[in-house]
């Protein structure tokens, strides 16, 4: 099993597999995203307490979940790269960091946009909001560290 995993993690084999899967996964993602947006923004009724402003949750909650999920995946990839010295693991961490930062930024902006009509302010120093801001800073640190060194061995 470990031999198979190492063979799948080798750059030529991994690029070959990803090259075949990307078009299919992109098409499936576009279909699912379009369906979700139409159903969430078009057909869902207004909330009785929040009115139309609740619809931002259809964007905010998935962005927050993905921002934390990508960070967990980065931790697993970094652990794999450090322990088993897999070359693709550090590249995966470097590739995931900007995507996670974008999702974190989207979660912060949409959360602030929802908070203004609900709480009357753009920002409160709640633990969840502050931890998402710290996560954005952590992503920025990972990106900065990756670009700080020329020799990435």
TrEMBL record:
<feature type="transmembrane region" description="Helical">
    <location>
        <begin position="133"/>
        <end position="149"/>
    </location>
</feature>
<keyword id="KW-0201">Cytochrome c-type biogenesis</keyword>
<dbReference type="InterPro" id="IPR002541">
    <property type="entry name" value="Cyt_c_assembly"/>
</dbReference>
<feature type="transmembrane region" description="Helical">
    <location>
        <begin position="63"/>
        <end position="84"/>
    </location>
</feature>
<dbReference type="InterPro" id="IPR045062">
    <property type="entry name" value="Cyt_c_biogenesis_CcsA/CcmC"/>
</dbReference>
<dbReference type="GO" id="GO:0005886">
    <property type="term" value="C:plasma membrane"/>
</dbReference>
<protein>
    <recommendedName>
        <fullName>Heme exporter protein C</fullName>
    </recommendedName>
</protein>
<dbReference type="GO" id="GO:0017004">
    <property type="term" value="P:cytochrome complex assembly"/>
</dbReference>
<dbReference type="InterPro" id="IPR003557">
    <property type="entry name" value="Cyt_c_biogenesis_CcmC"/>
</dbReference>
<dbReference type="GO" id="GO:0015232">
    <property type="term" value="F:heme transmembrane transporter activity"/>
</dbReference>
<keyword id="KW-0472">Membrane</keyword>
<feature type="transmembrane region" description="Helical">
    <location>
        <begin position="91"/>
        <end position="113"/>
    </location>
</feature>
<keyword id="KW-0812">Transmembrane</keyword>
<dbReference type="GO" id="GO:0020037">
    <property type="term" value="F:heme binding"/>
</dbReference>
<feature type="transmembrane region" description="Helical">
    <location>
        <begin position="21"/>
        <end position="43"/>
    </location>
</feature>
<keyword id="KW-1133">Transmembrane helix</keyword>
<comment type="similarity">
    <text>Belongs to the CcmC/CycZ/HelC family.</text>
</comment>
<feature type="domain" description="Cytochrome c assembly protein">
    <location>
        <begin position="6"/>
        <end position="147"/>
    </location>
</feature>
<comment type="function">
    <text>Required for the export of heme to the periplasm for the biogenesis of c-type cytochromes.</text>
</comment>
<dbReference type="Pfam" id="PF01578">
    <property type="entry name" value="Cytochrom_C_asm"/>
</dbReference>
């Amino acid at each position: 099993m470990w031999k198979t995993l190492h063979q799948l993690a080798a750059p030529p084999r991994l690029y070959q597999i990803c090259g075949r899967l990307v078009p299919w996964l992109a098409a499936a993602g576009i279909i699912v995203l379009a369906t979700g947006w139409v159903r969430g923004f078009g057909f869902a009724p207004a909330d009785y307490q929040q009115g139309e402003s609740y619809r931002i949750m259809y964007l905010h909650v998935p962005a927050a979940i993905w921002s934390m999920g990508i960070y967990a995946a980065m931790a697993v990839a970094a652990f794999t790269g450090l322990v088993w010295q897999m070359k693709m693991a550090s590249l995966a961490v470097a590739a995931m960091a900007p995507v996670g930062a974008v999702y974190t930024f989207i979660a912060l902006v949409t959360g602030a946009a929802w908070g203004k009509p609900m709480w009357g302010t753009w920002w409160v120093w709640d633990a969840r909001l502050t931890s998402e801001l710290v996560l954005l800073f952590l992503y920025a640190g990972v990106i900065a560290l990756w670009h700080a060194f020329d020799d990435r061995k």
